[in-house]
Amino acid sequence: MANTDRLSEYVKEEPILWHDRRRYLGLPLSFTRYSFDSNKFYLKRGLFNTTSDEVLLYRVLDIRLSRTLWQKIFGVGTIVLKTADQTTPVLEIKSVKDSERVKTALSNIVENERNEKRVLGKEMFGTAGHAGIDLDGDGIPDIMDGDIG
Prior knowledge:
The longest helix is centred in the last third of the chain and has 19 residues, at 99-117. By secondary structure, the chain is an alpha+beta fold. Helices cover 21% and strands 30% of the residues. The protein has helices spanning 69-74, 99-117, 121-127; strands at residues 18-21, 32-36, 40-45, 51-56, 60-66, 76-83, 90-97. The model is unreliable at 145-149 (pLDDT under 50). The protein has a domain at 18-117: Pleckstrin-homology domain (PH domain)/Phosphotyrosine-binding domain (PTB) (PH-domain like, Roll), CATH 2.30.29.30.
């Protein structure tokens, strides 16, 4: 009797749409790797001790792009994702190349995922688990119980 791998039916490889590393002075000299496919964003950090994290893209609540003068000079930028994810409420995609294109692509994929799953942004506020939590570090809670607007 042949021993079948039961995990194989649950493991589906989606094609990676984008990948990059955190850059220093415009060069990919980091062990922080970013990538996303049509459903998830992946973050992998470390050389000897690695940490992998993934965020479902339909759970992204807000996308922001920031570029300092030095980042503009070296052609990189930082994308900040505010999510309804418990482990990663704020995900910073630091110093990546073509940051404006990546932000636009992420924004479009997030909208497509929400439409496909029929999820509205205001529906996720109650289930996000962030009631009364300061997401942007300004000392003011961003999401309160019952705050849907």
